[in-house]
Amino acid sequence: MDIKIIFPDKSERTFPAGVTAGEAIGAWKKDALASSVAAKVNGMSVDLSFSMKEDATLETIAISSKEGLSILRHSISHVMAQAVQDVFKGAKVAIGPSIEDGFYYDFEYSETFTLDDFEKIEKRMKEIVAADYPFVREEIPRPKAVELFAGRGESYKVELINDLPEDVTVVSLYKDGDYIELCRGPHIPSTGKIKAFKLLSVAGAYWRGDERNKMLQRIYGTGFADEQALADYLTLLEESKKRDHRRLGKELDLFQVNEEAGAGLVIFHPKGMLLRYLIEEWERKEHLKRGYDMVMGPQILKVDLWKKSGHFDHYRENMYFTEVDEQTYGIKPMNCLAHMLIYKSKIRSYRDLPLRYFELGTVHRHEKTGVLHGLLRVRQFTQDDAHILCRPDQLNSEIRAIADFVNYAMGIFGFEYEVELSTRPENSIGSDADWELATQALENALKDNNINYEVNEGDGAFYGPKIDFKLKDALKRKWQCATIQCDFTLPERFDLSYIGADGEKHRPVMLHRVILGAVERFMGVLIEHYAGAFPVWLSPTQCILLTVTDKHIPYAEKVQEQLLAAGIRSETYFDNEKLGYKIRQAQLQKIPYMLVIGDKEMDAGTVAPRARDGQNLGALPVDQFIALVQDMCEKKK
RNA sequence: GCCGAUGUAGCUCAGCUGGUAGAGCAACUGAUUCGUAAUCAGUAGGUCCCCGGUUCAAAUCCGGGCAUCGGCUCCA
User: Fold this and answer.
1) Which residues of A in 449-468 have their CB below 7 Å from strand B's atoms?
2) Mean of pLDDT values over A155-175
3) Which residue of A53, A77, A140, A417 has the fewest C-beta atoms within 10 A of its own C-beta?
4) What are phi and psi of A462, to 5 degrees?
């Protein structure tokens, strides 16, 4: 097989697959020393970096590129489907795409696949790979394809073909050996090119992602260009699991989710609560700096108010209710209502706007049991919520200010994020015109600020469209944190108004927004982000005093007094253990500084800090160490 | 809510086809007083997730719950 490369200067050359990147670059330009050579290899964008991939052949490079891997994995999913159907007669295939880190294939089968079945399937897959069947593309008329798959009992494939747009008259098939599959392609040249794959898990998944449909069995797997890359990926997966916030929450004694208390209800332990307090205090200050007013509403409000807002009609299944004295109350799932009542408490002038009401508002939502997940998806959580009531002409600048706020906050914690614009869902309230206006307002603000975003059709809140900011957890699952929602409906339902310059009543617009989202969720993502090794300003324990022997305790106690007086979060560890043991324990707790106290320190009146990364800072006078920690807190390091 | 797996000491886990529970770490006690990731010895610790059933006998088998994990759907 030959491989065509388009070099950065657009020149094209063809090489045999076994040629190395170094040789290819050399042939293109003898003196190419660039650390990155962005080229197209068989149409796929690849960094033909000379230094990094010198020894890799063009074939490996082509497969290792993002597009290449996606094609490889898609081909492996075909081989898996083929193997499953060989081993388990009567299994029906649905769809099997490549995904971010691998691939899956959905099957309908009378028996449940187990992890033990993976061995059989993988064995058959290896035989198919060894046979090195070429993937052959074939195009046939649509009716013939329906006939073909109907004849094989592949009802899902028939449904897929029938749902193609009417102008599609020909469909493509891919064959490898005597196996035929409906597929758009492309595929790798032959099954023999598959060098490394592994089946990972099996799970249920609804046909076409709709819970009204039948549930199929989905087998997940992954594949790479070579065994080493696969091994590296599996190691990475193991490493990621070590930073799972549920595991770290236990190891660092931050929180628990207790079965006796109830599913999805978090209990914060002292250190977890301290971390939470630090985040919340930072947030309050940042909000005050930005012209927000702090407010607070009640946990329960009369059910009639929820009827008025539309929550009762559209959100009831997720709400908790309580009845006292023949009066039904809704436990708030959102914080907006009290804020509406604050706005309505007096007549507002156009000069008063915008009004920005901020509340660390605790809400309860009855989430389905199957979706609960550590701190990331819970039933009681606290939003850093604000409602901004403004004039329509202020909308753009308010949205811009929020986007800046989010960007600033993410920068403080070192997060990268993705932005999505979510539009009108099926179950929604409000007029078409308002939805159009609100969606435009959000979109314009994004465009004006040159923010890259993707559109997420039909994913908005029931009362308005929204801009979502998403963070990734350790296992690359995306979680929504910040969100900005534009709402014309609630001001209408509550008949909010302000007196304009013209002396007439006007309707304000409302923005719902959160910056971190839910404090619980943000903490979960944060724990994973830092792998539990929080920056000094967020560390529940900033330093720990480790004595070498018992005779150093009195001096250490004096140092501890000084540290606490200076506001440093310091712990003591005076147990009768060797220093090495205490260092190890402190290290496992990921405490930023371990202060060793022995004869030298006692005599000189110093402390000997050892940083979490293993670095020894040498002997420091206590006040100098205090200054160091305070400086790091100041700079949010 | 749906599909599947799992639930044993504070933690991580072992306990084969039913015969009445075990290890390491942690805790406690004692010895040791030690300089940058685990000192030694001993002691104590369990409604085997809960409720019911089968059985002479259930951690083990069956049924029903609850919870957790991996997904799907949904969501901050």
Assistant:
1) 459, 461, 468
2) 91
3) A140
4) -70, -20
